[in-house]
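re: ur msg from earlier - yeah i can do the L-homoserine complex, just paste it... oh wait u already did. ok heres what im feeding in:
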Amino acid sequence: METQKQLTIGLFGFGVVGEGLYKVLQQTPSLKATIKKVCIKNPTKKRNAPADLFTSDKNDLLNDAEINVIVEVIDDSIAAFEIVQTALLNGKAVVSASKKMIADNLPAILALQEQTGLSFLYESAACASIPVIRNLEEYYDNDLLHSIKAIVNGSTNFILTKMFEDKLSFSEALLLAQQLGFAESNPKLDVEGFDAVNKWAILINHAYGIVSHPDNILFTGIQNVQGTDAAVAKEKGYDIKLIAQAKKLKNGKVAAFVLPQFIPVNEPLSFVKNEYNGVVIESGFADKQFFYGKGAGSFPTASAVLSDIAALRYNYKYEYKKLYHHQPHILTNDFYLKVYLSFDDWKYIPREHFEWIEEWHAQAERKYLIGVIHCNQLVESDWWKSNNTSLVLTPEAIIDNLDIVHLKKRSLELAGLN
Ligand code: HSE
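and the outut:
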């Protein structure tokens, strides 16, 4: 039997996650893991731990031969990447929670792992307490994974819940998310979808072997979602959620994006409220599986970091099976989306970009339509995010190219236009 390694940790960052990890480790003595030093940016700030634990010199950790694990939970993605790089090259395993850093540097991070043969684990970087990365890595074979649909940002889910169920204003809800330690230090990253798309770039790698920079994935956040959209949703029996989605199309390529979406109230993702995250996986024979748990906050995030640290005792590494052991999938924008759009004036809506529009309500001050549009029309321009226009995907969302002719014909027949 392999013996368990003694883990001596150098921790970068003592904010919401770092301090959470410090406390959680104190309550887990069986782990045989101790924090030797914590590197912080601001040495004058009062910390809830003995002063001699702290340093502001990164080399005190990176060059300490006794430290065999670097845990990096800082906010600055550029500094975080430098730490990860140096730590791995200095022979230390690394655990990170920096989703932006990982998403921005995935090819380099893959190369560093190959070069050093060391573990680099980041379960907490996507969906915090839900063990989704390890599940995607270990459980699902390439061919079996049909689609994943997920709520991956806790703050926006919290804001939507507080606004539409508890009737708080957007700014009240955001302030609360900040006070509770859910939001990024720049909350624009949550609200406008940047954080969600970073997590999605990470997850589609483990799901489908796709290595894509987040800049190449269609996304927006909840910044344009209005009270009137929530009212329409309610009337139709839906909730509005910010949903990350990936689906294998009939041609074998993968559609992936992060957009607000109507979710029928009887579906599992509708049940996901506040800072919770949820992941629905559709696979070959199991049909649907639903993962649920806290997606933000100090202890839920620290619990995933702790689990990664525990996995290092057995030298656990991601194998990136879908990337290296199978034919990786290709990301495509060549498919159609069925969308709901609300807007102030028709003049902002290029109707000719739609394949067809099957419903419109133009009387009230806030107008809306439901129609089908090619994904590239959204990728190539941003009229749908401008002039107070709000786009929410319908539950059907993705329409495969192979189905478009037949669906268009049927829709026009239903409208009496054919
Ligand atoms: N700001 C992030 C969120 C924190 O709200 O999901 C967890 O990654």
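cool cool. The radius of gyration is 23 Å. ping me if u need the other ligands too
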